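Take a minute with the sequence and fold tokens given here and flag any structure token that looks odd. Thanks in advance.
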Amino acid sequence: MPSDPISFSFELFPPRTPEGAAKLPAVVKKLAAVQPAYFSVTYGAGGSTQEGTYEDTGVEAAPHLTCVGSTRARVAELLDRYRAAGVRRIVALRGDARQTNSGAGLPAMAGDAAAPGEFRFGNELVEFIRKTHDSQFRIEVACYPETHPQAPHPDEDFAHFVRKVKAGAHTAITQYFFNADAYFDFVERGARAGVSIPIVPGIMPITNFAQLARFSEACGAEIPRWIRLRLEHLADDRPALLDFGLEAVTRLCETLLKGGAPGLHFYTLNQSEPVLRLWRNLGLPSPT
């Protein structure tokens, strides 16, 4: 069993519109009020590298570092800048050559297929960080309990994950899922393979069926039939859909925590209220 304390964290991404940029500071402030362990943020997301905190909230920032199409010199430069700025945690991702890194809960999270550039796989990036900065950074990596959509076979995808762990990762964050058994099976497989680092479930609040279906199709996250049918039925009744989504994801989180999950990583999609409703429903610590 992992010795690390239970950890709760939030993911944010750079706003794509001026309206989104204007709203983000208020979202960050509300999320920071419950004192998460850290904010996972894509590079350039509103000052995420400034003094290792996010928007002067005092909450640690963990910038995403992708190696797709990059060079060792460029990655080394970024790592030096992060260390100088006070960053102590990195989310190390292979990335996706087809799109910008849009957040760990989206398809760009952590594909391990070959990509152009001096790094081909996520484990090579982890090895490079450990070699050049040793213990300066806590390294988070990604994993897919339901198998990465680009993987030719589940065993090959799992082998990529094990290589990242052996390269020196400290913690793994999963792609979101709605089937707790997929997570527990993945953890058990990891234990049999000698994986002892915490594997933190990624949690996606349900707020919009069309959006969720689009994300899930792209990243290989299965929406169970019973959830899909209920969401389709409630598609035109947003309050009822939100209530159902809250209930379903709350049960999932409760099952995961009771089963020994070392924490939860919430994909916020830059919205505070859906995550905070879930936070309150779970009875998680709320200093304010």
Observations:
- DSSP finds nine helices and eight strands in the chain.
